Amino acid sequence: xxxxxxxxxxxxxxxxxxxxxxxxxxxxxxxxxxxxxxxxxxxxxxxxxxxxxxxxxxxxxxxxxxxxxxxxxxxxxxxxxxxxxxxxxxxxxxxxxxxxxxxxxxxxxxxxxxxxxxxxxxxxxxxxxxxxxxxxxxxxxxxxxxxxxxxxxxxxxxxxxxxxxxxxxxxxxxxxxxxxxxxxxxxxxxxxxxxxxxxxxxxxxxxxxxxxxxxxxxxxxxxxxxxxxxxxxxxxxxxxxxxxxxxxxxxxxxxxxxxxxxxxxxxxxxxxxxxxxxxxxxxxxxxxxxxxxxxxxxxxxxxxxxxxxxxxxxxxxxxxxxxxxxxxxxxxxxxxxxxxxxxxxxxxxxxxxxxxxxxxxxxxxxxxxxxxxxxxxxxxxxxx
Length: 384
Fold this sequence. Notes:
alpha/beta; globular; ten-stranded mixed β-sheet
């Protein structure tokens, strides 16, 4: 269908709306939310669930209702075949993007033909930082003799990382507000124009992303206090805590042909990098450089970008360093408007990107996101 080397195709992708903390999705068990997405994905594609070789789910806070392999629990909660295995992975905010990478790698290796990759996070029920919060009686993860030897006892936190990036890359705070306002405006437009219609499924009666603001008051946004004392980021300049799930069906060329499937795109190139764990969130810069280099492409070759809006400065520093035109970035809004349900966000961005490639007829899309621990994934998709 494309080249002689093995390919991994995205047949379809679906997501729930993102629910606000305490909002319309907060009453759902994470396994039910993700299970419904799995079932919807298979129903949309017409694929027999028993033909799926593996299920790979991303989730960050794997405790409580999200513990004990929530990907497997979700599959079973949906009444899908017990013979199909599942695994849950944690690459922090990039967990479900990494799930797609692992799925594509399994398919390209020839070991598997159909893999469901996705993720879930119901942050209303399993709060941010639950799995490493000393207040809950757990030890602090960034500690121990080895860690202290290399990084001392300095504060390691995403909020500090976002502020450090703003300082190091010289990001103007008003430019951050510009980006936040644009994120909400683009997300509202996407809903109004039906751009999300092909990717959204109803969940608990919720049919639209709950965090999108129809208008933004810059002065009111400025008046919100910073997240950390002395910092530049406040809540309007950060991703919203959210609930949600998303899933992608990845197929081999053999499966596409035998089952008569019609793919939307292929996973052209995928990579992951490590970066400074103190800055934490700068990884999308080297990840984007690496994936472009491996693909033999340049920034100018990419039609659409999805860069996760963990914090406004992350996207602006990435775009500044790489020379990316913001008019091609998060064209239907980002996490400041749509929310960031941690383990689901990678698959959510992938879903949004692949459907926008199909809607516009664009050829290449690039997705990247920063991740806890100083990590970042990057993926290039090519529409077929």
